[in-house]
């Protein structure tokens, strides 16, 4: 059985960095790619930016280092607590708070750009929830503000329906660890249950940590349609080979509100 997304990410917060072979290098690469998209779309910064699924700070810290005025929010209180600590340890201070992306606690038009990265939208399992999240991202953006949203390549994954994701070996200050996922596809071919296995050093042996969650394999056309319905225009998908980001990136502009 899978638990709630909040329970999953609360449990994973202490070990989330182990998903990446080198978390520090991943932060730098992702910030470089996302910062380039922000500057390409909005011009020279810095910009006021919301990372609405900030996790432990993977994107928020790097974007703050790039000079942006970053605020982070995430469903997981454990993740945002760690994000604040990790940011402070690196000399940046983007505030982060626990918040649901479907009900963001920010003013209308407060941000120049909103980032929703690392496949976060896929943890919403209904069209109503996806629409609510995109609608609130639109609400907190200024007119013509920028949305950057990244997802796995679900067009390909729905075609192949893999049973597992490739294992990752992490090399960090706390030693090597191994992360791998088993995927159990639902009969509808749209959603899948994930089992996250992490092998963490424990003396002369290994401790096995297992977490479970469910994701929705959202194809690009469905995300594009939902973004348009939420009030976004000029919607473009950027492939990893052109953006430098490791997942496909949707870039869209907030349509001007009627007055």
Automatic annotation (TrEMBL):
Protein name: Class I SAM-dependent methyltransferase
Organism of origin: Streptomyces guryensis
GO terms for biological process, alphabetical: methylation
GO MF term (any one): methyltransferase activity
Domain Methyltransferase, chain residue ranges per copy: 50-145
CDD domains: AdoMet_MTases
Assigned keywords, A-Z: Methyltransferase, Transferase
InterPro entries: Methyltransf_25 (IPR041698), SAM-dependent_MTases_sf (IPR029063)
PANTHER family: METHYLTRANSFERASE
């Amino acid at each position: 059985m899978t638990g709630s997304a909040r329970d999953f990410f609360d449990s994973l917060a202490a070990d989330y960095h182990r998903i990446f072979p080198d978390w520090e290098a991943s932060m730098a690469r992702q910030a470089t790619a996302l910062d380039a998209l922000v500057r390409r779309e909005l011009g020279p910064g810095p910009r006021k930016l919301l990372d609405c699924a900030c996790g432990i700070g993977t994107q928020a810290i790097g974007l703050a280092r790039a000079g942006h005025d970053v605020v982070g929010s995430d469903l997981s209180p454990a993740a945002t607590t760690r994000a604040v600590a990790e940011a402070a340890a690196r000399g940046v201070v983007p505030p982060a708070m626990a918040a649901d992306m479907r009900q963001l606690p920010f003013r209308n038009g407060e941000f120049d750009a909103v980032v929703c990265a690392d496949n976060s939208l896929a943890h919403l399992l209904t069209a109503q929830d996806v629409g609510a999240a995109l609608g609130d991202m639109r609400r907190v953006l200024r007119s013509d503000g920028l949305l950057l949203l990244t997802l796995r390549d679900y067009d390909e994954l729905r075609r192949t329906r893999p049973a597992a994701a490739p294992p990752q070996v992490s090399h960090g200050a706390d030693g090597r660890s191994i992360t791998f996922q088993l995927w159990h596809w639902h009969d509808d071919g749209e959603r899948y249950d994930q089992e996250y296995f992490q092998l963490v050093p424990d003396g002369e042996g290994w401790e096995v940590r297992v977490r479970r969650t469910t994701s929705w394999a959202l194809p690009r056309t469905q995300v594009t349609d939902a973004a348009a319905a939420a009030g976004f225009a000029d919607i473009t998908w950027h492939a990893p080979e052109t953006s430098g980001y490791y997942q496909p990136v949707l870039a869209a502009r907030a349509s001007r509100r009627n007055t």
